[in-house]
Specification:
The complex is a heterodimer of chains A (236) and B (218).
Chain A: H1 9-12, E1 21-24, H2 34-43, E2 48-51, H3 62-67, E3 71-76, H4 86-92, E4 97-100, H5 103-115, E5 119-122, E6 136-139, E7 142-148, E8 152-162, E9 168-169, H6 178-183, E10 185-195, E11 215-218, H7 225-230
Parallel strand pairs in A: 1-2, 1-8, 2-3, 3-4, 8-10, 10-11
Antiparallel strand pairs in A: 5-7, 6-7, 8-9
Chain B: H1 6-14, E1 22-25, E2 44-47, E3 51-55, E4 76-83, H2 86-94, E5 100-103, E6 107-109, E7 114-115, H3 131-137, E8 140-144, E9 156-157, E10 172-174, E11 178-183, E12 186-192, H4 198-203, E13 209-210
Parallel strand pairs in B: 1-2, 1-5, 5-8, 6-9, 8-10, 12-13
Antiparallel strand pairs in B: 2-3, 3-4, 6-7, 10-11, 11-12
Helix pairs in contact in B: 2-3
Classes of the chains: A alpha/beta (236), B alpha/beta (218).
């Protein structure tokens, strides 16, 4: 019988080793799998490459993983925001690398990684410093830059509901990078608010079909990053 | 010299967006445009973090941390809204399905080059977000900006000195002093704010300005 449920966040991330590449869902705090990230802080693998749109805020979630010295390199589109100080500090000290990618190119690189497409051409960033050193080509009288598909060893994603097959639905704008990241990792680990019986999610509204998901952890009352930041909390 | 307030600039810009347009608003001053949709028109606002049909901020106390805009502020979803993932969102943007994008600017050149993401300083943490995708893919790019920097330097220049977001991408510029069109011949003054003269605008602009004539028409 297929049953992708895993008992707890700690066991779900236990096989993530030093040097792994990890996609982490979320746009700001919306969709950020904070309990899975904290389990990764506890597990302690180092020299990680993390692909995520932002770099976290305060000293919790992704910012805590970075502050804990576990991340060697970030691949993201927007590494600073209102309450983000951990990444900027470490980056200025030369302790963490940054690959800056336009947001749509980041999304398309992940989508292609998941779809078995090694590279593609886009008009985004043509004529800017983010296209420097990249192969370019003309199609139909316009210039395009080549970008590579992205894959990861693991994806950590937050969704709203799942069944034991790993079919997922998300909530509002917390969906963001989740569905594409689920497709682009060797092992996809998802935390959900609720597990429902097979059939309870209408097949017409399944957003991520279960084939893209390997492990499901139920976190009924996920913490909100902005609340923890406001309270001045830090993890661990 | 009078000129337009920020709200008047947003109202003036909104008046140029046609009924039925799909519109993406950048972070900051562009967000004001949502307040000035003309009464006889309907715009559908797209926010690149996955919502088509973005509505106004909810009342204090009923914000939902999972319902936000690209600036990570709480918003609402109108009846008829749709949520989607990032690849679909940027298919809308890069695939030419969004009609209008309103962006802020650090500099705009006479040829429509835009710089709005980085000062290029060595210790700055660069952050590009979706700006380069928007200028590459949205049909019409409108810039809303103060005409000069806080210290009075021109923001509209012959050549941008900051790192570019895109080359030749801007269609029109809405400032506190004027509305300018980017044409094949250069920048053309389409409209002056109340109490502002062509000479005053030229004095605060780092590139030659054309006056609207049939030859300078877009």
């Amino acid at each position: 019988m297929i049953d992708k449920r895993v008992g707890c966040a700690a066991s779900a991330v236990a096989d993530i080793r030093d040097g792994a590449t990890i996609m982490i869902g979320g746009f700001g705090e919306a969709g950020s799998p904070i309990e899975l990230i904290h389990a990764l802080v506890d597990a302690g693998p180092r020299h990680l490459t993390v692909i995520s749109n932002n770099t976290g805020s305060g000293r919790v979630g992704l910012a805590a993983l970075i502050a804990n010295g576990q991340v060697r390199k970030m691949i993201c589109s927007y590494p600073r925001s209102a309450n983000s100080m951990v990444f900027p500090e470490l980056h200025r000290r030369g302790e963490i690398a940054l690959e800056l990618v336009p947001q749509g190119t980041l999304a398309e690189r992940i989508r292609c990684g998941g779809a078995g497409i090694p590279a593609f051409y886009t008009a985004t960033a043509v004529g800017t410093i983010l296209a420097q050193g990249k192969e370019s080509r003309r199609f139909d009288d316009a210039e395009y830059v080549m970008e590579r598909g992205l894959r990861a060893d693991f994806s950590l994603v937050k969704a709203d509901r799942a069944d034991r097959y790993g079919n997922l639905v998300y909530r509002c704008t917390a969906r963001n990078f989740g569905p594409i990241m689920c497709t682009a990792a060797d092992t996809t680990i998802v935390q959900v608010r609720e597990l429902v019986p097979p059939g309870a999610i209408d097949p017409e509204v399944v957003v991520t079909p279960g084939v893209f998901v390997d492990r499901v952890v139920v976190v009924p009352h996920p913490q909100q990053e902005s609340v923890l930041v406001k309270e001045g909390r830090r993890y661990p | 010299m009078n000129g337009w307030t920020r709200e008047e600039m947003a109202r003036r810009l909104a008046a140029d967006i046609p009924d039925g347009a799909y519109v993406n608003l950048g972070i900051g001053m562009p967000e004001l445009v949502v307040q000035f949709v003309p009464r006889d028109r309907e715009f559908v606002f797209q926010t690149e973090n996955g919502l088509l049909g973005m509505g106004p901020a909810p009342p204090a106390g009923s914000e939902d941390p999972e319902l936000i805009n690209a600036g990570k502020k709480a918003v609402s979803a109108i009846p008829g809204a749709a949520y989607f993932h990032h690849a679909d969102s940027f298919t809308m943007i890069r695939g030419g399905h969004i009609d209008v994008c309103v962006l802020g600017a650090m500099q705009v050149s006479a040829r429509g080059d835009l710089a709005n993401w980085s000062t290029g300083e060595a210790d700055a943490i660069p952050a590009v977000g979706g700006a380069m995708d928007l200028v590459a893919g949205v049909k019409r790019i409108l810039v809303i900006t103060e005409h000069t920097t806080k210290s009075g330097e021109p923001k509209i220049v012959t050549e941008c000195t900051y790192p570019l977001t895109g080359r030749g991408v801007v269609d029109a510029i809405y400032t506190n002093l004027a509305v300018l069109d980017v044409t094949s011949k250069g920048l053309c003054v389409r409209e002056l704010a109340p109490g502002v003269t062509h000479e005053e605008v030229q004095a605060k602009t780092g590139a030659p300005l054309l006056t609207p004539t049939p030859e300078n028409a877009r």
